[in-house]
Fold this sequence. Notes:
about 45% helix, six-stranded parallel sheet, 8 strands
Amino acid sequence: MPSRHLVLFDIDGTLLRSDGAGVAAMLRAFTMLHGDRGFSFEGTEIAGALDAVLFARMMAKHGLPANDATHTQFLETYRSELLRALTPGRARAMPGADQLALTLRTKGAATGLLTGNYEPTAFIKIRAAGIDTSHFPFGAFGSDGPTRRDLTPVALARAAAHHGRSFAPELVTIIGDTPADIDCAKAHGCRALGVATGPYSTEQLRSCGADLAVEDLSATESITRWILG
Ligand SMILES: [Mg+2]
């Protein structure tokens, strides 16, 4: 019996960590395509950011053209650099993350992604961390809108298309490790579950509006009860 609940997971800092492999692969891709211009994300808030926005900002910063052709070229190069960088053990699942998604699915909840990652690189990271990709048959990704807030309606529409039914916002929970994850939930009347496995503490996540904030996702039974309760 399917439940009426939908749960959307962020990736970096929430499902897994890859210790800078993603950022390093992006910087290598910029250098490979445009030469050594001292590309750096210094002064840029990476956590919670959208990949397509990071691309556009970096190109603008260096006076390079950001268009469909250069974006596609970047994504292709970043994708192959990430594949090379994520050697076994480099990406690690966060405690309880895979189990939580599995438990939610077992109880009939719909599960998907809401992430700033590009779709192809999202699944490279998830696979590298040993997390079951079948937990995430749909999602909203880092080139689906100009801000993270814009991704929530995209994820809801894809969930509805995939399951053949719509999900009421109050029964949608977004799980993430940054204020941007909390914001993209609350802005659309969804519930926000903050997890302190990224750069922010439970106190910080709570103070920016998380309905619940936990140290990690290992208490899968009680977190599942809170989500479905
Ligand atoms: Mg994150």
